[in-house]
Amino acid sequence: MKKIEAIIKPFKLDEVKDALVEIGIGGMTVTEVKGFGQQKGHTEIYRGTEYVIDFLPKVKIEVIVKDEDVEKVVETIVKTAQTGRVGDGKIFIIPVEDVIRIRTGERGEAAV
Length: 112
Prior knowledge:
alpha+beta, Alpha-Beta Plaits, 4-stranded antiparallel sheet, two-stranded antiparallel ribbon, 2 helices, 6 strands, about 35% strand
């Protein structure tokens, strides 16, 4: 199993979620996060004072999938989250050793 973490622009969340549900992803965790990379942030003026906004709002989507579903999920996220501009985000693929469903004690893929 693999954990796929995708950091995307917030306005793309519904589109990505719908696309993942369409390909059979049954659950995900979504977190509002802040960060920066190549985008570097920007400056804003509020009441005459200039502020540097280093950390930009993003959304992190986390899903656990079978090894054979990784490419399909990654392709779906890239296709739906991509705008072609700096700051579209990143996808991380992390090995998952085990999963335990707390309610039933099921383990492995059955717990996903």
